[in-house]
Every structure is written in C-alpha cells, then in structure tokens.
Design brief:
Elements: E1 2-5, E2 10-13, E3 20-25, H1 36-54, E4 58-63, H2 70-79, H3 83-100, H4 116-128, E5 132-135, E6 138-141, H5 157-161, E7 178-183, E8 198-200, H6 204-214, E9 218-224, H7 228-243, E10 249-255, E11 258-260, E12 263-264, H8 275-281, H9 284-292, E13 300-302, H10 304-321, E14 331-332, H11 339-351, H12 356-375, E15 378-379, H13 381-393, H14 409-424, H15 428-440, E16 443-448, E17 451-456
Parallel strand pairs: 3-4, 3-9, 9-10, 11-13, 14-15
Antiparallel strand pairs: 1-2, 5-6, 6-7, 7-8, 11-12, 16-17
Helix pairs in contact: 1-9, 2-3, 4-6, 4-7, 6-7, 9-10, 10-12, 11-12, 12-13, 14-15
This protein binds one RNA strand of 76 nucleotides through α1, β9, α7, β12 and α10.
Length: 458
RNA sequence: GGCGACGUAGCCAAGUGGUUAAGGCGGCGGUCUGCAAAACCGCUAUUCACCGGUUCGAAUCCGGUCGUCGCCUCCA
C-alpha cells in the first residue's frame, strides 16, 4: 500500500509501526454548523479507515474537538450563553451530521477543555528544555530553536520573515513564535496554570491528545490542506521538541479543499453549504460519491449539477444491488461474473494512495455486469453481495433513501393496485394518468416483470 | 513576493513514457415496454491549455507562455 506523504512530497510504501494503525485526524471547532468542506475531509478519512480495516489492520482513530477558542468565546458572548454550552451544542450537531453521512465514530473524541493537564505538562516540558518562554500575554514557542522548522510546509523561517508584520506590543522574541498558552483576559473562561490563569493555544491540544491517546509517534495524521501551515507545522515543532522523538507522525495526509464557485468554502468567508442543508436535498451516498469520485489531494468544486450527477450515480448502484427486480425463477449465479477480478481491481487502485475515484468506477463497472446478467435472466447473487461489500468499504450503504411519505404509503399502494386493474383492462389513459399524477407529487412508478414498484423522488 | 497544486469530451473526473485515453452525469440512436421508467447495446476526446524540446515513441519527461486555485492570518 502506498500513501502520499506531505512530509516527503511523494508516495511512500505504507508500513505501520505495529498491527494497529494509529490515526489522528484534526477535528472541528464547534461554533457553527459543519459544512460540506468538513464532510469532504471526514468522509475521506472514514473511507481510509474503513479500507485499512478491510485490508486487515486494526485502526485506532482519534479526532479532537477544539471546544475552546476565540470564536467560540465571541459567539457565546453574543448569544449570552457559556462557551461550554455553545461548543456542546455544535459538537452534538456535528456527531449527528457524521452519523447521517455514515461516518464511523472515532475511537476517542478528546475535547480540548478536558485535556488541559496534558497540555500543561507539555508546555512545562518545553519551557524546561528551553523551547518555550513565558511572557505577560502567555507562553510562547521559540521557533528558532528548531532547526528543521518548516519541513512540512516546505518553507524556511527566513522566507517567512519577509511578509510578517510585527504588531505593536508584541512580546514575542521572534515574529514566527507562536502561542502555547494564552493568559486569560477578564471575563474569559480560564484554567489555572503555573503561568497564571489562561487557556490553550490552538496547536497544543493536538500534540497533547496525540501523545496521550496514540503515543509519541503515530502512523497517520490527517487534515485539510489549509492546516499544513501553521497548524501542523507547529504541532510537529512542539511535539518533537517535547518528546525528543522524530517523526511525530510518519505519514501526513492532506485532502484538497472544497471550492464553492471561485473560492474555498469556509466558515470565515461565509460561503458555505452546511451538511444538513445538503442532506435535505441529497442522500449520504450521493455526497460520498461526490467526495470520493475524485482524487483526494485535488481541490473539489461543489455545484448543484455535480451533486445531482452523484445522486443519479448512487441510484444506479442501488438499482444494481436491490433484488426486487430479480425474478424468482432466475438461475442462481451461473458464475458468469468474475467477482474476484473486480475485488482485485478495487484493492489495486485503493492500495495506490487510496484511488477512490477508480474504486468508485470499479463499482459502476460491476453494477453494469450485474444488470447485464439480470437482463439475461441470471440472478448474480455473489456479484451483488460483492458490490454491497465493496461499496461498504467506501461507506456507501446503497440502501433506498428514506421514503418521506410514510402516512401516505397505504394510499399509494391502493393507487398502484387500482392502476394495475386499469392496465389489465387496457385502460391505458387512466393508468397513465395515475402514474403522472403520482410523479407530480414525487412518487415515481416503475412497471417491472415482478409488478409495479415505486420510489420517492428526491 | 515566497511555497504548492492544477489546466484531459457539453459538465465532473481517472490515467503520468508504449495495446482501442477509465468511470459518472448529460445528449443522440436502438432493444425491452401498451406507453413510460429502470436496465441493456451503440455513438458522443485521432486527442489531453498553448509553443518549443528530449525520445524509436509523450496527455504523461524538460523549458517557456497563458490561465485557474490554495497556503503564507482563524479555517477540514
């Protein structure tokens, strides 16, 4: 298996340290609803995790929740609630979104506010070793003591100095130094520390959680490309300085960013589509096909049209696995489909840095084979089982979408029965009328050899 | 300005030195159907932004030009 490692800028053979893959993916800051950019990242890493398990690895997956930061504090103050309450609310919403997207839960979701002791331990260690220094406004990391600072984002301290503006009142020894511990301002939530009451800086939590739950060297560290600098660069600097062990993470994986129109979809720009908005119009399978239909390191542009295409594709796969359309008198599997070759192809493309786009294409090809056999009167059971199984590795359920007409179902069935009688009496006009009227209210009928089936139009 | 990514059919998107350039959506024609839908079959890029170069051979490597995007500040 090969993985593109941001650290080396090339594909490397994946060799985990042990039988259990230790994986850390940067999580959210819960101050508003999560958007499709988040969905992209977490769907991807979910697929990676599922694939590693499919290949026989045990995986320990940790994802942090940054439940204290400037934006949470600001937003909570404006709403007149506590930062804790606000963060809790959006963390719950995030979990709901993930569940709806069929993202498997992480093994641990550590929250920043619950990991303060470990952070203080690391900060103290960094101070003791001379990698950090306290000042009035907080404790800072001394970037110049790290000779290889910039190795992940491919930049040097010198090259960055040019564009840096030094703000007045800065207490930092060097403009690139970053804060580990922020001294509390009046009215802000704070925790006691040897340097006075305060709260953690942004990067320290990931180091603390990573080390605590996964050890000093982890296998895979993932996140969006927007985190490469400064977040992951600083994580490396502080973690490796603290533990004295390199590398902090053996494989750094970064997904490309979701674009909306001409720009990146992001909270700060405000041009976003939330996961729940998207789920109102599209199924989770469609969103996953949209995300996994291209190479994860490339940027992906959202549009209604592309989502619609993904939805139709999802429907096509569902059609192939469902058995309502299979006749009862069909021959069972004449072993006409070489299921193993599809499985091999799936593994081959996924082994090459998680080629999900080609994996999805493999699913479509298998679906076509299944449909072809069905048309020829063969019930390709094994192939359909394989399609479901491989789809599940990508987190696709291929289950029919929820039918939103629960109460109306008996009436729909009644209309279908009436229409059947009309068709038997060759009252085509009336029968067609029922079909088109139902279509107008979002119920699509299909007359198959086994009878009429219906589905809800999304 | 520095670092990085990218430009493949109407749209999305694989492929990164050598058989007919994956797959999805859309479109057109056909099969099936009372008609549809779904499904299947066929067609839909002699060509991979442009210009040079290397090579027996390049979408794939090198140089240049044009264009798009990201990061360098909070962000998946």
């Amino acid at each position: 298996m090969k993985i593109f490692n941001t650290l080396s800028s090339q594909k490397e053979e994946f060799l985990p340290q042990g039988s259990e893959v230790r994986m850390y993916v940067c999580g959210i800051t819960p101050y508003s609803d999560s958007h499709l950019g988040h969905a992209m990242s977490y769907v991807l890493f979910d697929a990676i995790r599922r694939y590693l398990q499919f290949r026989g690895y045990r995986v320990k997956y940790v994802q942090n929740i940054t439940d204290i930061d400037d934006k949470i504090i600001d937003r909570a103050a404006r709403l007149g609630i506590s930062a804790h309450e606000l963060a809790g609310r959006y963390t719950d919403a995030f979990f709901e979104d993930m569940k709806a997207l069929n993202v498997l839960p992480a093994d641990v979701y550590p929250r920043a506010t619950e990991e303060i002791p470990k952070m203080l331990e690391i900060i103290q260690g960094l101070v003791d070793k001379g990698y950090a220094y306290p000042a009035e406004s907080g404790v800072y990391f001394r970037v110049r003591n790290v000779p290889d600072y910039g190795k992940l984002s491919n930049r040097t301290i010198e090259s960055m100095e040019a564009g840096i503006r030094i703000e007045s009142g800065e207490e930092k020894e060097h403009p690139m130094d970053f804060v580990l511990w922020k001294a509390a301002k009046p009215g802000e939530p704070s925790w006691a520390s040897p340097w006075g009451p305060g709260r953690p800086g942004w990067h320290i939590e990931c180091s603390a959680m990573s080390v605590r739950y996964l050890g000093e060297t982890i296998d895979i560290h993932g996140g969006g490309q927007d985190l490469i600098f400064p977040h992951h660069e600083n994580e490396i600097a502080q973690s490796e300085s603290f533990t004295g062990k390199k590398p902090f993470a053996r494989y750094w994986m970064h997904n490309g960013l979701l674009q909306l129109g001409e720009e990146k979809m992001s909270k700060s720009l405000g041009n976003l589509i939330t996961i729940r908005q998207s789920l109102e119009k599209n199924t989770a399978d469609a969103i996953r096909i949209f995300v996994l239909g291209s190479y994860y390191r490339s940027p992906l542009t959202y549009s209604e049209e592309v989502m619609e295409a993904a939805e139709r594709g999802a429907e096509r796969l569902r059609q192939a696995v469902r058995d309502e359309t299979m006749g009862t008198g069909m021959e069972k599997d004449a072993a006409l489909i070489d299921v193993e070759s599809f499985r091999r192809r799936f593994i081959e493309v996924m082994d090459d840095d998680f080629g999900t786009a080609q994996a999805v294409a493999t699913l479509f090809d298998l679906a076509r084979e299944i449909n072809r056999e069905r048309d020829a009167g063969h019930n390709a059971v094994q192939a359909r089982v394989a399609l479901s199984e491989l789809a599940r590795v990508l987190g696709l359920t291929l289950k029919p979408p929820e039918r939103p007409f629960l109460v109306a179902e008996p009436f729909i069935e009644l209309l279908i029965a009436t229409r059947r009688e009309l068709r038997e009496a060759k009252q085509w006009q009336l029968a067609d009328n029922i079909r088109s009227k139902l279509a107008e209210v979002g119920v699509l009928l299909e007359d198959t050899s086994k009878g009429t089936i219906w589905k809800a139009k999304r």
